[in-house]
Amino acid sequence: MQPAGPLERLRRVFYRAEDAYFERRYGLDLNAAVAHAELSSANADALAHATAYHAAWCATLRRVIAEAKRTRVPFDTFVDLGAGKGKACFFIARKMRLARIVGVEFSPALLEVAQRNRLIFGATNVRFEEADAASYALPAGTPLIFLFHPFDDTIVRSFLVTNAERLRGSRALIAYANDVHRAVFSELGFTTVRRYAERRLSFYRPPA
Question: What average pLDDT score do residues 117-131 get?
Fold first, then answer.
């Protein structure tokens, strides 16, 4: 990977400042990373396939919102797979009017932080569920789905296969940030709507 140039370094300074401001404004615990070795779960298989916790940049989430608006699809549900401390859910709750915002997280420790944040944040349409994304069944509705590289390709594939019938032919949009395993989507017949290579952010539509 090429070293970041001056403009990119400047952007990252702004992004970090924006993230810190969002956290301070609402009094939340969001941005501190959690190493994989610090995660714990009774689900050993999910833990083996998980990645470290890093909060998504607000800048990334703004692009997700912009892409969702570009589709003109009336999304009613936001699902964050590997929600961690809940940052994406809270940011979306402030920027989009949705009936349901669901954070899916397998780690009880991270889920506990997310639940504390939810009480502070106070949004009634946000909820968190302790679940393994591999077997998680999407709720009814038209979902905007977000992943910030929370797990490896095994779990990405399992989630898509588990929800294949639910997604097929739907107007769902999947946003995949830090899209390390984007090849899985192509393998399973998903269409790439757009990819921001410099941000490693991809958007997908389900097969018809």
Answer: 97
